[in-house]
Write a structure and sequence with these properties.
12 helices; alpha+beta; AcylCoA_DH/ox_N; Putative hydrolase NrgC; Butyryl-CoA Dehydrogenase, subunit A, domain 3; eight-stranded mixed β-sheet; 8 strands; single chain; disordered N terminus; 389 residues
Length: 389
Amino acid sequence: MPDTFIPTDTLANARALAPELSARAAEMEEVRRLPADLAAKMAKAGLFRMVTPKSFGGLELTPREIVEAVEAVATANASAGWCAMIGATTALNAAYMEPATASEIYSDPNIITGGVFAPMGKAVDEGDHYRVSGRWQWGSGSANCTWLCGGCTVWENGEMKRLPSGAPDARMMVFPASEATLLDTWHVMGLKGTGSGDFEVKDIAVPKAQSVSLMVDQPHETGGLFKFPAFGLLSLGVSAVALGNARGALDAFAALATTKKSQGSAKTLAERQTMQAEFAKCEAAWCAARAYLFDEIDQTWAVATGEGAIPMERRAALRMACTHMTRTGADICRTLYDLGGGAALFESSDLQRRFRDSHAITQHIVTAPSTWELTGRILFGLPTDGGMV
């Protein structure tokens, strides 16, 4: 890979990194994080700058381009794809900050940011800054980050501030990673190489200019990417990892099936009719879910690049496609793991890792089963709080 940041052809850069990402999957699982040298290579490839506004030297890619790049990384290594997705999407904060502050943080071409939206922290209003304490779970890729962000409820005069809807006033606090303590809590079944452990801060001062609300604030940037729904963009990232991981499972099973023979059989798995039919069904399911996902991306993007806001029904349609891709990806990986038989059980098999990673991906809240309930209400025309759509 080149030694300097390449601001073009991110998909080609991702594909160029794929062989090394694939070869080091076991290493990542063992150390339970993205190694620093791989993170640096991914940064130079532009994978953490895909959402960063062009005004700060970022790529500001289209949602389709972002999904394609994350898909390519996750096809090689789902944990690396997940880290790319988190690093890219957390840079969305740059579009909501005052430009001068955002420039100070996000203009470094090799910066890696991370963090957690969930309001697990507390921010006390002290005038020109917030006094912040909190501990956040799921800090994917935090070990390689220069800046972190954490969602916080906002407090003033001893009381929690609330929005007109009655919901807590929650804001993302952006602070140097050096002010946080990383905790070794990432002992899990899947996505083991993401380093998604807890991080915490205690009584730090965060300037108000370094805080944003993706639900209340309006972006300063005017590009279509920043009119795109914030939670839809995060959902796209999660589903892109699922998309690539399932593709990797299909490729791994095809390689296994052309060489493996069951005990007492002269035929390879690929020569057996049952395997042929099941593999074809999995391939068709993947192609269909991918086509559905990209169709909804393109329809939403067409609205985002036009006049007016994106209606809740369109945002819901995008979220359904993301959830469908994530769940379908897990179904494919489970089926292929079953078809692989005893060979899929060994740690050397990609199929067992793809199976584990796929089911870890399904646990993210933006593509969890509750998404069906949220979007179902909208389909029925029932009153729905669209803030998280």
